[in-house]
Amino acid sequence: MPTKTETGAAARFIDIHVVQSVPFANLNRDDNNSVKTVRYGDTDRTRVSSQSWKRAVRQYFQHSIGEHALRTRRVGARLAHLLENERDWPAGLAQRAGQHAAAGSSIKFELGKNEPVVLTNAMVYVPETAVAELADLAAEFRAELENAKDIKKSTDKSVLPQDRIDTILRSRNGVINLFGRMLAEVDDAGVDGAVQVAHAMTTHGTDVELDYFSAVDDVTSTWGDTTGSAHMGHAEFSAGVFYRYATLDLADLLSNLGGDHAAAKELAQAFIEAFILSLPQAKKTATAPHTIPDLVHLSVRSNRPLSYAAAFEKPVRSHHDGGYAAASRTALDAYATAANKLLGQCGIVTAGWASLEEKDLTGLGTRTESFPELIDLAVNAALDTTRTAEDHA
């Protein structure tokens, strides 16, 4: 039987391991528009940053659960837009309300350079519904705003109550409870994230390729009166099989949710699905790299998360028939088997996998037929075990 952790829960982490083949693409560019890379095991690999993939996961997750969060320094401008376009406020008064809302919190502010807005020095991260709450506050103090002056310098004071604005900025929803929030400027607004996401990297060495392209001028092409293209250029791309990893800390999630198991189950299922199926959107119109994972392995653990990235420290070699996907699946299975043997199965509550792979991968636990079935297996085992442990604590 699994042992209880210091939180009183027998299941604490859900580890998500993904092997995914991505064709000719550039999912995540650096400041020079180049493919991001990492040297690991003395071999150059293609890399996608955790921030890039996490944004794709968050966007998928928000759409899935029907809740959205807003991360911006321009919360005042967003408020002004809502007041003018949805509540029929005069443009000037709506603009002033946005200025006073942005200037009225505990966060320091500065004046925008290109438009008459006030920017918070730190990005706020709030539920989308917080903008409507700020609009309600502005409506309550409309008379004061009508008699107030515009915010024109950093020493100007807002006529809106700071404590009321800060309370709105502390609000949270499922997105923030899962991904966390750093907002040190507002007391008690910080939220510890319940997910950790690793940078994705290929399981094998890769080369960056330059793609030369030209754009034809339609008039020139039709008339045929001159030669040459309207535009020429080049872009970097690569292809490969990626290992992706994330872990969900159920103790942190339940803490953020006040112990609500039903909400934790909904958010956990939605996050795992989002991590499995999301894809960064860079260069999508030119590459359409919309693959699905070759393999997903979920492991529920009681003591600590465990990445299998070390399975690919030695880059896999292509299969005798070509390709890296099959060899990557085999390497993941072999590493999981060896790691769990070394740890003595310590901390494993349950494990399972779903894959295009035809052969059995015994080191990955119970085989399931689909990703939804796999997600249900892991989440139900994790949260049912957590509830049982708490009931008997």
TrEMBL record:
Pfam family membership, one: Cas_CT1975
InterPro entries: CRISPR-assoc_prot_CT1975
Name recorded for this polypeptide: Type I-E CRISPR-associated protein Cas7/Cse4/CasC
Gene source species: Kitasatospora kazusensis
